[in-house]
Amino acid sequence: MTALRQPIADCDVHEGMRSFMELKPYLAKQWHMYLTRDSLGRLPTKHAYANPTNGTTMELVHDDGSSDDWFPERMRSRLLDGMGIDYAVIVGVVPEALCAMPQTKFAAAAASAYNDWLIEKWLSFDGRFKGSIGVAAQEPLLAAREIDRIGSHPGMLQVNLPMASPLMPWGHEYFDPIWEAAVRNDLRVSFHVGTPTGLMGAPWASGWPATYMELRSGFIHHFQSGVISLVCNGVFEKFPKLKVVMLEGGFAWVPALMWRLDQSWSEARREVPWLTRRPSDYIREHVRFGTQPFEEPDDPAHLLQVIDMMGSDEMLLFSTDYPHWDFDAPDRVIPANFPAELKKKILWGNAQQFYGLPDPVSQESPASVS
Amino acid sequence: MRAFQVGKSRIVLCRRGDEFYALRDICSHHGAQLSGGVLGGTNVASEVGEYRFGRDGEVLRCPRHGFEFDITTGRSLHDPKRQRVKSYPVVTRGDEVFIELTP
Q1: Residue A229 Cα, gap to closest chain B Cα (Å)
Q2: How many domains does chain A have?
Q3: How far B86 CA lies from chain A's nearest CA (Å)?
Q4: Which residues from B are below 8 Å from A when comparing CB atoms?
Q5: Does A364 fall in a domain?
Q6: How many CB atoms lie within 10 A of CB A194?
Q7: Can you give the pTM of this predicted structure?
Q8: pLDDT for A88-133, tens place per residue?
Q9: Does residue A221 sit within a domain?
Q10: Contacts of A249 (CB under 8 A, 6+ apart)
Q11: Is A260 in CB contact (< 8 Å) with chain B?
């Protein structure tokens, strides 16, 4: 892989964790009762599906079972320096899975421990690593308290939540304290793909698909229902400064959803009289989409049409999903037919604007080489 | 509310108190007959999560897809610029109501 000669923000990167026990030093003693081998084995952080391609790309997994994503220095050399990534937004899959836990107080404590661990092990290691605050969203008031506790850390850009919501759809006012706290702390909110379990219910409204391939292909259900719920329930009317990004759900479906929402609104507007604009207008203003897994139609020109249909070229944020098996390399994934300006916006400009990232400066580590 | 056929024009005349409003009786969306719908009010702009009923007698709702039209202007409530039906001036003299049909 070669580093591109332009700034790049990678908006979806996953740090590894050797085991949940890494959080023990950050977790108050009253919770250590759960940190036994058998208890940890039952945590919802365990994926409900076996993946035929492994979770972490096998390129990074070693014979002793360790993988490079456990080590900040290896992530730095392989991702930041190796691929010329100027900022890598770390999105924690452990805390978002905690949102599935019925033991909500423990979930909240574990999310706090995760945030402290993330700051100490990753964000302090290299300023190019940026963080996402983990919360137990099923306890919105505790989540808001955690956002207030840690939200002013300069490395934290956003609050991360699972796209599959616990208990009820994301637009419900039950979750308002989370949006309020995010806005209060000038943070964005990311929704990241994940296999639902526990309080999140089944992956599909019709139940559990039989294969991982079906599961992965169907993840767009959660993104669509999440966007619909946030828009229709007036979350962006209540919190006009709230900006959110949907990670790992793709984007080719967005125009179709916009059309459908606008059509429903034309027919049932009186059911959501608090909306002052068409649903698609809220999406264009408040919602962004991570690019990974990049859509791969037979004819890449069709993607330019999709972006045109979205009505804005500022909605896509480049993301690799490093170190997962289906990660997108920045020098390979954007089709050659994309105009240079658009490519620049996707790789850098849109994320810079969304997160308010400073221009990249020369880092303490050696500059990347093309 | 009453529908008329005048030459080739289909007109729906709506009454609110002593005021009359005339619209083309063909929905701008898919051409349904608006006079088959409901003349009433609707849920007007409100705080998120609250419902406030208002504009009673001013809103004509298409019987097919539920598009709502302001009888005083012919403009739809959801997309007043693009979805609108023709509105005709109405004059009343005593007990007589005149609709000015323009081509």
Answers
A1: 13
A2: 1
A3: 19
A4: 29, 42-52, 65-68, 76-79, 83
A5: no
A6: 25
A7: 0.92
A8: 999 998 899 999 999 999 999 999 999 999 999 999 999 999 999 9
A9: yes
A10: A163, A193, A219, A220, A222, A223, A289, A290
A11: no
Q: What is the pLDDT of residues A47-68, one digit of tens each?
A: 788 888 888 888 888 999 889 9
For residue A264, the enclosing domain spans 9-356
Helices and strands: H and E segment counts in chain B: 0, 9
Q: Which CATH number fits the domain that encloses residue A54?
A: 3.20.20.140
What distances in angstroms separate CA A147 from CA A136, A157, A185, A204, B86, one per listed residue? Answer: 11, 11, 8, 30, 53
Is there a domain that residue A365 lies in? no
Residue of A nearest to B82 (CA): A266
Give Dmax (Cα) for chain A. Answer: 61
Is there a contact between B45 and A173 if contact means CB atoms under 8 Å apart?
Answer: no
- Whether A186 is covered by a domain: the verdict is yes
Interval B34-63: pLDDT, tens: 999 999 999 999 999 999 999 999 999 999
Cβ B66–A268 below 8 Å, yes or no?
yes
Task: Report CB contact under 8 Å: A274, B83.
Answer: no
Closest CB from A234, A271, A273 relative to B44: A273
Q: Nearest CA of chain B to the CA of A11: how many Å?
A: 31
Q: Which of B44, B52, B67 sits opposite A267 (nearest CB)?
A: B67
**Shortest distance, CA B39 to any CA of chain A (angstroms):** 14
Residue A31 burial (10 A CB sphere; 0-12, 13-18, 19+): middle
CA A16 to CA B9: how far, in whole Å? 71
Q: Which of B27, B44, B48, B77 to mutate to test the interface with A (most CBs of A within 10 A)?
A: B48
| pLDDT lower than 70: segments of chain A | 1-4, 41-46, 362-370
Judge whether A266 is closer than 8 Å to chain B, CB to CB.
yes
Q: Where are the alpha helices (DSSP H) in B2-103?
A: none
Residue A300: partners with Cβ closer than 8 Å, 6 or more residues away: A335, A336, A337, A338
